[in-house]
Amino acid sequence: MVTFGLIRHARTLWNQEKKIQGRTQTVLSPDGMSDVVLWADILKPETYDLILSSPMTRARQTSQILSELLAVDIFYDADLREQDFGEWEGRRLTDIRKQAPGEIERQESRGWAFCPPGGESRTRVLKRVSRAMQKALEAFAENQVLVVTHSSVMKILIYHLLDRAFTRDEMPLLKAYHLHELTGKERIRIKKLNRLKLG
Fold first, then answer.
1. Alpha-carbon distance values, 4 to 10, 49, 140, 152 (Å)
2. Antiparallel, parallel or unpaired: β 188-197 and 2-8
3. What is the dihedral of CA 106, 108, 112, 118, to 10 degrees?
4. Considering only CA atoms, which of 84, 65, 87 is closest in space to residue 74?
5. 3-state secondary structure the chain
6. Domains of the chain (ranges plus CATH)?
7. Mean per-residue pLDDT for 175-187?
8. pLDDT digits (tens, 9 = 90+) for 64-76
9. Is residue 57 scored above 90 in pLDDT?
């Protein structure tokens, strides 16, 4: 049985400016770096055996700080990288709504087929993230694994496990900067969402 604790990387300047990051390689802000040090104290009692991380810079930085402070090794999997948001990257939702009225709403109405212009669909993200988690089940049996990834990745994986339609009328489930727990042996299931607040 593997237990997974899922968290999002710490804050970047683009997070604080409410810009869409996607595949853009952004770094942690000074506030984000400080946050990770606090997270290590909160996560220490969870006794993780290892960290499984997205290789993107902001996730890598988060993982490296946690690895040092929790004294555990890091493994990287490119399938945990953030969704590609194509032409929307570097822009704010408010700006997109002004420049392309109705486009965000049109994409959101597509549910799992949501795909930013020139970007990656949710179904494609789900395929690679599911592959990463299945590999982890097989490679890290009987371990407690801290997964450091991205907001869209966590949402896509968890909504799939809950058989959600990803429609605009669904109530949000995941609280920002919380630990979400999954577990599994041959298949992954949800153990507890929003279990622990980081900070």
1. 18, 10, 10, 17
2. unpaired
3. 60
4. 65
5. CEEEEEEECCCEHHHHCCECCCCCCCCECHHHHHHHHHHHHHHHHHCCCEEEECCCHHHHHHHHHHHHHHCCEEEECHHHCCCCCHHHCCCEHHHHHHHCCCHHHHHHCCHHHCCCCCCCCHHHHHHHHHHHHHHHHHHCCCCEEEEEECHHHHHHHHHHHCCCCCCCCCCCCCCCCEEEEEEECCCEEEEEEEEEECC
6. 2-197 (3.40.50.1240)
7. 95
8. 999 999 999 999 9
9. yes
pLDDT at 168 over 90: no
Strand partners for 50:
73, 145
DSSP β-bridge partners for residue 4: 145, 182
pLDDT at 189 over 90: yes
User: Is residue 17 over pLDDT 90?
Assistant: yes
Return the pLDDT at 164: 96
Q: Which residue has the higher pLDDT, 66 or 171?
A: 66
